[in-house]
Amino acid sequence: MNKSTKKEPVAADSEKKFLRDKYTAKVAHWEYIVSACKLTLKQFGPPQKGDDLQAFKDVNEFYQKAMDRLEKARQKLREVEESE
């Protein structure tokens, strides 16, 4: 039996496992950031003016970006899991 053909399925499985682990970690990472943003926004409450208002807007903007990245990571994870 040819050694190269024998190793190909193992390499493919190893790559799929790597990608699954990578995107699982990304999902967990962005879930943590999203929850931290939610907690921060909840603690801030809707501020009325000044620096607090700008900080609230900054956190809210980052929260939206984090939600987008979380959804992208979830989508990539689904794609990897479906290809197995």
Question: If you had to describe this structure to a student in words, what would you say it looks like?
Answer:
By secondary structure, the chain is mainly alpha-helical. It is 89% helix and 0% strand. The mean pLDDT is 85.
What are the key terms here?
84 residues, mainly alpha
List the helices and strands and how they pair.
Blueprint: H1 3-44, H2 50-82
Helix pairs in contact: 1-2
Report how far the terminal alpha carbons are from each other. 25 Å
Helix-strand pattern: HH
User: How big a fraction of the residues is strand?
Assistant: under 5%
How many strands in all? 0
Low-confidence stretches: none
Tell me roughly what share of residues is in helical segments: over 70%
Rg over CA atoms: 20 Å
What overall form do the CA principal axes indicate? rod-shaped
Structural class: mainly alpha
Main sheet record:
none
Number of helices: 2
